[in-house]
Write a structure and sequence with these properties.
alpha/beta; Ribosomal Protein L25, Chain P; Alpha/beta knot; 2 domains; 7-stranded parallel beta sheet; 27% strand
Length: 241
């Protein structure tokens, strides 16, 4: 079924309403009519199978037929913290692809080697919403405002598996297995990726002192957005396996 989004406040017990850009997409692009069935997600982890019952001037009203909790969502809660790259378009790409892979939240980091200080949170939220629908998820990742690396490290929950990727780390990613860490059963994972130029030695020391596990992704030098996508995909597979 085609996927559409509507916020929770437009959903009642057995009815939902689609408005705004989603209504325009539904009527003018997808050409949906009364009697058509849709899948509507609320962005908080719930998907609804619904039937269009009426098309008004600015809204579509739908009857809820079935409800799905965490449909197509991963079992773990994954946070991706990543240094802002110089090219803003690369962070747009990163948001889109890691949303498709299943991240729960993305934190743009301001590090010692971060050059830009741009914050396009509203645009990133729109990209995450579109990627959520495209990948058939029902939970839109939370995109945070940029945070300094120090504040991020201090605010990270100690109960989660926390990994910082760094080219100087002795442990290769392949060695990070359920048998190598006591965190194999935790429901949350935090991944930390540096900007162009990587993390400074002081930042890596700060993170490891706080409990982050330093690992490397191999001998090849990866761009920020590539490292983020690879690490998310690899840890998703590791945790699901």
């Amino acid at each position: 079924m085609d996927y559409f989004y509507t916020p929770p406040h437009l959903i009642a017990r057995d009815l939902l309403v689609i408005e705004g850009d989603e209504f325009t997409h539904l009527t003018h692009v997808m050409r949906k009519n009364v009697g058509d069935t849709l899948r509507v997600v609320d962005g908080t982890g719930i998907a609804y199978d619904a039937e269009v019952t009426s098309l008004e001037k600015r809204a579509a009203r739908c009857k809820i037929r079935e409800k799905h909790i965490r449909l197509n969502e991963p079992e773990i809660d994954m946070t991706l913290a990543v240094g802002l790259p110089k090219n803003a378009a690369k962070f747009d790409f990163l948001i889109e692809k890691t949303t498709e892979l299943g991240v729960s939240s993305v934190i743009p980091l301001l590090t010692e080697r971060t050059i830009p200080r741009h914050a396009r949170v509203e645009r990133w939220e729109k990209l995450a919403l579109a990627a959520m629908k495209q990948s058939c998820r029902c939970m839109v990742p939370k995109v945070c405002h940029p945070m300094t690396f120090t504040n991020f490290v201090l605010a990270t929950h100690k109960s989660s598996l926390r990994v910082i990727f760094h080219e100087k780390a002795d442990m290769p990613f392949q060695a990070l297995t359920p048998d190598s860490t006591q965190h194999q059963h935790v429901p949350a994972v935090t991944i930390c990726i540096g900007p162009e130029g990587g993390f400074s030695d002081d930042e890596v020391e700060l993170a490891t002192t706080a409990g982050f596990i330093p690992v490397n992704l191999g001998a090849r030098r990866l761009r920020t957005e590539t490292a983020a996508i690879v690490s998310v995909a690899a840890l998703m597979l590791w945790r699901s396996g």
